[in-house]
Write a structure and sequence with these properties.
With 268 residues, the protein is α/β, with parallel strands linked by helices. The protein contains nine helices and eight strands. It has one domain: TIM Barrel (Alpha-Beta Barrel), CATH 3.20.20. 35% of the residues lie in helices and 14% in strands.
Length: 268
């Protein structure tokens, strides 16, 4: 049965960030994810998790200068030390938060960038990060993101992500399969689930995220039949978490009708 984690960056924005933990727990969630924890001491966030009976299941490594347009620097030549310093900081947060997954965003390719050099940088940095994370029991995740939503992002397609994982050869490097981005950029969701969560690739998907397409609202809005896909995830034996990385159309709690309808047969 799918297990859902509230994304506290996208959801519960009617509350201040620190109040979103309690709001998610009140709605029945037992796990959370969000983009970045670094504005707050790790111990403070760990206290909120414990107080509200929540597990942290995912967050991102430092992305560079987000306000200036950075969306990670894992694949950006010349910024290797910045990436590695940031990843070590993320690992320390993961230790305190007892979080088993860190997403390392690839970054945006500048116009005319040497993609072969970017690829080499990407693979090298990811291999290093996976080696740092493995003794702590942490998986490093990479996410293909649709160009419509993040123009210029280096990694766009599921097949590209899985090729990087295979090339790197690290067992704790995995793909974050965001079904919203996959639908926007590629489509054919059911077949991609069967391909990448079935044998022999099933161990390469470390996390799934969802949102309604094309507008990124609740998963019961738009063109994707998530009820069918949730049943398919059960069929292929997916045991991981599903992050609810969507922007509620109105109030977050009011928009959870889709989840409450499935609650008798699902765990949040």
């Amino acid at each position: 049965m799918p297990r859902f984690a509230a994304n506290l960056t996208m959801m519960y924005r009617e509350h201040s960030f620190l109040d979103r933990f309690a709001a998610a727990a009140q709605d029945g969630f037992t796990a959370v994810e969000y983009l970045f924890p670094y504005e707050y001491p790790a111990e403070q966030l760990a206290g909120l998790l414990q107080h509200n009976g929540l597990r942290q299941v995912l967050f991102n490594a430092p992305p560079g200068n987000w306000d200036a347009g950075d969306r990670g620097c894992t694949a950006l030549p010349g910024r290797e030390q910045e990436f590695r310093d940031g990843f070590l900081r993320a690992l320390e947060y993961a230790r305190v938060l007892e979080c088993p997954r860190i997403h390392a965003m690839a970054g945006v390719a500048a116009e005319g960038a040497d993609r072969a050099r970017m690829h080499a940088t990407y693979v090298s940095n990811l291999a290093w990060a996976a080696d740092q994370a493995r003794p702590a029991g942490v998986d490093v995740l990479i996410e293909p993101i649709a160009p419509r939503n993040m123009p210029g992002f280096f990694l766009n397609r599921q097949e590209e992500g899985h090729a990087v994982v295979a090339e790197t050869g690290k067992p704790n490097l995995k793909v974050l399969m965001d079904l919203f981005h996959c639908q926007v950029g590629e489509g054919d969701l059911a077949m991609k689930i069967r391909t990448y969560l079935g044998k022999p690739h099933e161990s390469r998907v470390g996390h799934i995220q969802i949102a309604g397409a094309p507008d990124r609202h609740e998963p019961d809005t738009g063109e994707v039949n998530y009820g069918y896909l949730f049943d398919l995830l059960d069929e292929v034996g997916y045991q991981g978490w599903i992050g609810c990385e969507y922007i509620p159309k109105a109030g977050t709690s009011e928009g959870l009708v889709w989840l409450k309808e499935r609650q008798p047969v699902m765990h949040l």
